[in-house]
């Protein structure tokens, strides 16, 4: 039960007949709302949010308080809702948008919102693109068109060289326009010799990397580790360092050291394949356990072959390991040959080089396919 006495200011509970144009198809004739010791304009706004969007009294009151939302009539809010509906927003999308940015109900949509919609449309964005962008982060409408949206868009377009790709980028990263770090981080990367192609790749695949707070520190750290800013691996390493929290990074290093690696071995593996530090600790342990305890192979081989950690244990590593192990036992493959190469090559090349060329090809193929089929059977069982 709600305790009215717990409030610092006295509150009064009202029932009031309302005449708004609600989102709900079956509005209740009565709207229940809380009115604290605030102005009539605030209490009206609270009631409007409850009736039109189905918000709880407490949530509606919090929105009005947090965003200083006040209006005395439903004229402007109704105008705003009509504007958004005319631009393709569904009732549920409107509800989500207003829950994040209730101040929109007090704005002039023609002056505040329409120019931004027109800008995106002029670049090839569809109405659905705009709806998705605003629904995910309506604060983009709070950003200045001239000072934030246009400069950020043009900066991203400079690297992606395509309006379609630029629209896709900002649509998947809706906080871009309100984050001034993006432009400054891109400039910093450029000044430190990061190639345009690397920045373009980050924009397409690791966009959040460009929103990090400690970009200069990370760039210097990666340089000290031997990463070349002009190489593609620099972007991957940067993504790994910004994605994995420092404490989690240490846990992964400690896990690898338990399997016999040194700190230097971890750094070599990271330089060889930066993605290896994005692999979960469970995956690291599974691969190491199979490689060392079941196959009896040297963990040091994985230091410069850290790409193996990215491969599927059941669908790639285990089936191919059975074939390689058989060839080694029969003396059909030199023990000094690379232990990593058989796992990173394409399926066709593996079949040609490690199965079809040998007299025992039928047996090797059976050995290989048994493990492969088992992996896919297990997948289907898990999905059913």
From TrEMBL:
Molecular function, one GO term: nucleic acid binding
Superkingdom of origin: Eukaryota
Gene3D superfamilies per the UniProt record, alphabetical: Transcription termination factor 3, mitochondrial (1.25.70.10)
SMART domains from the UniProt entry: Mterf (SM00733)
Residues that span the membrane, as ranges: none
Keywords, alphabetical: Transcription, Transcription regulation, Transcription termination, Transit peptide
Keyword Secreted annotated: no
GO biological-process terms attached to the record: DNA-templated transcription termination
Family to which the UniProt record says this protein belongs: Belongs to the mTERF family.
Protein name (record): Uncharacterized protein LOC101493784
Organism, as annotated: Cicer arietinum (Chickpea)
